[in-house]
Amino acid sequence: MDIKNWKEHPKVQEVRQKFENEKVRSSMKWVFEIIVTLVFAALAAIMMFQTVTMQESSMEPTVSVGDRFFINKAVYKFSSPKRGDVIVFRTNASDDAALHIRRIIGLPGETVQISDGRILIDGETYKEGRDFPNISNAGIASSPVTLESGEYFVLGDNRNNSEDSRYADIGMVKKRYIVGKIWFTCSPWKKIGVWKG
Description:
Layout: H1 10-48, E1 49-53, E2 68-72, H2 75-78, E3 86-89, E4 100-106, E5 111-115, E6 118-121, E7 124-125, E8 145-146, E9 151-155, E10 173-174, E11 178-187, E12 193-194
Antiparallel strand pairs: 1-2, 2-11, 3-4, 3-11, 4-9, 5-6, 5-8, 6-7, 9-10, 11-12
């Protein structure tokens, strides 16, 4: 066989063709696996996370109007909301109902009252560990409010300018209307990071 023409030899051509086919097959398999992984990741993200933008001043100064967050939608499928959690909820079952962001204060079975600007839980003063202003309007919590199973009492951090469980329009938040928990701040730029509020 002429050394110059070895590339044209049928056996060489056959090996080259086989190698090319293997390479293409391997590349296609790799591309397919990446696409499947990305699709599953996107579906998981859609099912577990959602974005929400703060539309009200009820959580200032902790959260400002326009702040944007990722919500962890899966967390309360495996655990119960805790006192101090900042949650996103609807006031009813409608998907069109507005989303609200508030802090959980009272848990199911507890009695909440606001007296002389202080929050009482089961008759004891609730110490929050941060400086919120004294509450000037106790609303319906001026008398003791006992939470039923699956109900939560929520307040905005802007205690004197917040529509929350003290008022009939919000009332007690039922667990089934809780969309999730604030998990990650995605804007503004200077606040980006895992939520620590």
